[in-house]
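Consider the tokenized backbone below.
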């Protein structure tokens, strides 16, 4: 793969454009280029106005955006400008100045980062820097353009010399003094093949705009050398960055609400439902014309009235060049040049051929440019006054990409007039199709043919080859464009009625270029600015697309339009992921997901999901189509939803409780329950004869029919009767009918009271159980050293396993005394973490004492999207809603002492205590600050 670098430089307003290309570049050949097009996207554009400078690291620039000298200093010592940030290094945008030095430069770096999302495709990044220079060009200097990669290796450097106030290009010389200020020039250079390829972290492109000084006796500034005694100025006034990618295939999969079907639209809780979703494949694309509207409008010196008669070339660097007619007054035409990255967005470059000379005194127009053996040839119409405005066909050549032209004289003449030449070289001879004009009432045009062997030979006229006798081309058939085909030739030409219209672009075919069969209208005027008057087209084929640039007339102005015709294309096969959700697109609501679903082009695929509804009421089933390959060009039609109503089932749960009766210590209550249909969970409550309502105990997610619970302290009078309730639950909604069961208790329980000091270490229950713990003090270190009761306590509490969940990686980290140390991946612990710890004994003081530490003043904990296992690094109890305010948390779970190694959800009013660990769920990444 070859790469190219196009440096485009203008005059008066110094415009330097650097194109870094990883695209395939063809060598310029005969005539119109027909390579695959590039698609360009302007990803950044900024005028360096006040307020935008700091964003790009140019905070040193003054409000006007102009670098100016602060004080005049000795010419023998260096001095700096306002916009200098660091004159001694090569980092950061800065201006470095100094008399007596060999160079002075303005550098702009780290401005372009190539994106990585289209990593599989070749890319081009285009950086345009516009530099304005003030007065003073008395002495030799040059502007250097350097392209560098991340390693600051110089790959390309091109110097543009301007000796003694004259403008001259290093490789091709031309006189730019009389050209418009926005004239551009193109230079094609090759760069090495491995630079600026897409990488994981992007690629930095740096430009170095440098000024070489040949004399220390003159003051200068930026890229300008001023006249002695005065100051020049310089500033960069705009930056444009494009990313250009090779076109890639895309598809358009779709699904709508009617594509979702249910086996039962009104199911009952627990009844299985089959959901079917039909995904429609990429549609077949019918062929036809697509109009893009005006692509080159009137405006600019010499082209304020009309722009018309485009002639297009595809350049070897992948860009497009256009030559066209423009004028401010009727018939006073000049020929202009413009360039484009995509053939749609054009940049004007000013006039390149003016009127003057024999038989072109009034104007020059209808250019046609053809490349042969590296030379640009232009045949064009010359306007002169001889019995009215008459036209002849003139000829000119260029050796600098069509910027500078040398007139070679008249090529073809007729007393009434000839124009609109189209020339090609084939079979060892030159062939021209052109318009022959006939003055009369009405004026008429017909298409003629001429030929010759050598360019220096006169043309031999072959007469009319396409007459003006069809339904759409009387009185005028003109402006031919001819293309070879497998069976001969095809022609696009203009059929029109002068001055009134209509005008249309017509089509004809021929076996030999002489005998033509007309087949009607190719392109009609349909847009307001065309006003049913379209004419003078130039066309080229790229791949399967026919590109057409043509002229449209609204009876006030001619403008240049663009359209393209694509053949009918069958839809492409694709693969995708089809996902089914309940009520909202959330991982927790995912019903089913099918990967790598094949959807044929022009066809459809049905995907099924089995679902058991559990929550009563109206619900929305949502289906999404994602991960489409090839990429989906329109994701707005990849979502569908349908309503379903779930009826309540006759589910119920009942519960009874057993436990020691009468006065006793540390009761363990065993609840047993059963159900009609298996729920997701069972919520357990109790109430007493104290009349203080129902109290939540816990949620049993194992739904195994029994649950052990150790009652907490009851601050009121000791009750003698207890009532229990089991509530079957699916998801977050009740589905069962609560049913009471009575505990056969004869006397009150003797409750155990938890009365633990806030600053004391965690008191754990007897060994052989799992516990959910943390520590509040500012302690951190090796897990075995921190949790060492023999070191910090009485040694009576031992453990064999500790684990912690690392949310950022979605992995459990653990430490076990039973395995080799190398297999342990939980080594460091601190007070922000919550732990599951398994005790093997808890003798002695009944406490696990950890290391010594200070009371924390403020602690931050990074919470990641999802569940986070955290500690409570403070000694101040606080309700969860207040403690977690600002984190956006939506659920909190704590240790369930009645079900070892289980947790239970608690309400927002739950009081958070030190020594406890917590599961906290947040819907997005956030930071929890604990500063109380």
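A designed sequence for it:
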């Amino acid at each position: 793969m070859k790469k190219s670098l196009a440096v485009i430089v203008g005059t008066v307003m110094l415009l330097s454009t650097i194109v870094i290309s990883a695209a395939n570049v063809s060598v310029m050949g005969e005539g119109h280029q027909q390579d695959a097009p590039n698609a360009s996207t302007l990803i950044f554009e900024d005028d360096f106005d006040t307020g935008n400078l700091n964003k790009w690291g140019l905070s040193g620039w003054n409000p006007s955006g102009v670098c100016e000298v602060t004080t005049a200093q000795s010419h023998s010592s260096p001095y700096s400008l306002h916009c200098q940030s660091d004159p001694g290094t090569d980092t950061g945008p800065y201006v470095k100045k100094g008399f007596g030095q060999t160079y002075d430069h303005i550098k702009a770096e780290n401005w372009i980062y190539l994106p990585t999302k289209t990593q599989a495709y070749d890319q081009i990044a285009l950086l345009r820097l516009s530099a304005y220079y003030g007065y003073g060009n008395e002495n030799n200097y040059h502007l250097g353009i350097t392209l560098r990669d991340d390693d600051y290796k110089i790959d390309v450097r091109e110097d543009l010399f301007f000796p003694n106030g004259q403008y001259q290009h290093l490789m091709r010389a031309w006189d730019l003094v009389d050209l418009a200020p926005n004239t551009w020039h193109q230079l094609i250079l090759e760069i090495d093949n491995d630079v600026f390829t897409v990488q994981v972290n992007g690629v930095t492109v740096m430009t170095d705009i440098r000024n070489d000084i040949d004399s220390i006796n003159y003051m200068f500034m930026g890229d300008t050398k001023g006249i002695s005694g005065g100051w020049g100025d310089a500033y960069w006034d705009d930056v444009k960055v494009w990313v250009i990618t090779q076109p890639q295939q895309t598809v358009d999969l779709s699904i709508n609400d009617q594509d979702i079907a249910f086996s039962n639209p009104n199911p009952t809780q627990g009844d299985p439902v089959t959901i079917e979703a039909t995904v429609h494949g990429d549609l077949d694309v019918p062929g036809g014309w697509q109009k893009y509207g005006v692509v080159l409008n009137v405006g600019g010196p010499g082209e304020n009235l009309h722009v018309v008669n485009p002639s297009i070339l595809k350049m070897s660097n992948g860009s497009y060049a256009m030559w066209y007619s423009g004028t401010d007054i009727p018939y006073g035409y000049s020929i202009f040049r413009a360039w484009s990255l995509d053939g749609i967005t054009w940049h004007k470059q000013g006039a390149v051929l003016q009127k003057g000379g024999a038989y072109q005194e009034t104007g020059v127009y209808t250019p046609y440019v053809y490349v042969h053996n590296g030379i640009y040839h232009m045949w064009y119409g010359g306007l002169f006054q001889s019995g009215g405005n008459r036209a002849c066909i003139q000829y000119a050549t260029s050796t600098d990409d069509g910027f500078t032209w040398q007139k070679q004289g008249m090529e073809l003449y007729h007393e009434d007039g000839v124009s609109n030449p189209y020339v090609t070289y084939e079979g060892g001879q030159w062939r021209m199709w052109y318009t022959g004009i006939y003055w009369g009432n009405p004026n008429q045009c017909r298409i003629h043919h001429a030929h010759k062997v050598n360019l220096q030979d006169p043309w031999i006229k072959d007469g009319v080859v396409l007459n003006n006798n069809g339904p759409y081309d009387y009185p005028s058939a003109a402006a031919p464009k001819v293309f070879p085909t497998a069976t001969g030739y095809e022609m696009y030409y203009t059929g029109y009625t002068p001055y009134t219209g209509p005008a249309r672009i017509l089509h004809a075919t021929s076996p030999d270029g002489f005998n033509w069969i007309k087949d009607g209208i190719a392109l009609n005027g349909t847009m307001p600015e065309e006003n049913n008057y379209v004419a003078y087209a130039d066309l080229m084929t790229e791949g399967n697309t026919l590109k057409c640039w043509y002229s449209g007339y609204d009876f006030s102005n001619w403008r240049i339009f663009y359209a393209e015709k694509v053949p009918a294309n069958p839809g492409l096969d694709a693969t995708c992921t089809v996902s089914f959700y309940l009520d909202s697109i959330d991982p927790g609501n995912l019903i089913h997901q099918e990967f790598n679903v094949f959807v044929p082009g022009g066809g459809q695929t049905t995907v099924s999901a089995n679902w058991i509804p559990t929550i009563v009421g109206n619900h929305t089933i949502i289906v999404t189509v994602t991960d489409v390959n090839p990429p989906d060009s329109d994701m707005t039609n990849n979502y569908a939803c349908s309503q379903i109503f779930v009826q309540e089932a006759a589910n119920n749960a009942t519960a009874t409780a057993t436990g020691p009766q009468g006065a006793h210590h540390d009761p363990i209550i065993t609840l047993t329950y059963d159900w009609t249909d298996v729920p997701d969970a069972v919520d357990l409550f109790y109430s007493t004869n104290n009349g203080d309502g129902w109290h939540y105990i816990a949620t049993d997610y194992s739904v195994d029919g029994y649950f052990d619970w150790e009652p907490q302290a009851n601050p009121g009078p000791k009750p003698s009767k207890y009532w229990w309730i089991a509530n079957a639950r699916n998801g977050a909604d009740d589905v069962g009918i609560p049913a009471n069961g009575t505990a056969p208790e004869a006397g009150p329980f003797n409750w155990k009271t938890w009365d633990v000091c806030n600053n004391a270490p965690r008191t754990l229950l007897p060994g052989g159980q799992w516990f959910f713990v943390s520590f509040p003090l500012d302690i951190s270190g090796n897990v075995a050293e921190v949790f060492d009761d023999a070191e910090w306590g009485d040694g009576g509490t031992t453990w064999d396993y500790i684990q912690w969940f690392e949310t950022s990686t979605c992995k459990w980290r653990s430490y076990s005394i039973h395995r080799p140390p190398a297999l342990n991946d939980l080594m460091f612990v601190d007070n922000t973490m919550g732990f599951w710890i398994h005790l093997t004994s808890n003798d002695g003081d009944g406490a696990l004492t950890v290391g010594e530490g200070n009371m924390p003043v403020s602690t931050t904990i990074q919470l990641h999207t999802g569940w986070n296992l955290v500690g409570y690094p403070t000694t101040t109890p606080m309700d969860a809603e207040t403690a977690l305010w600002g984190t956006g948390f939506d659920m909190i779970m704590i240790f369930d002492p009645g079900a070892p190694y289980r947790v239970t959800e608690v309400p927002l009013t739950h009081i958070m205590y030190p020594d406890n660990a917590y599961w906290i769920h947040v819907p997005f990444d956030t930071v929890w600050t604990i500063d109380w």
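The two ends are 64 Å apart (CA to CA).
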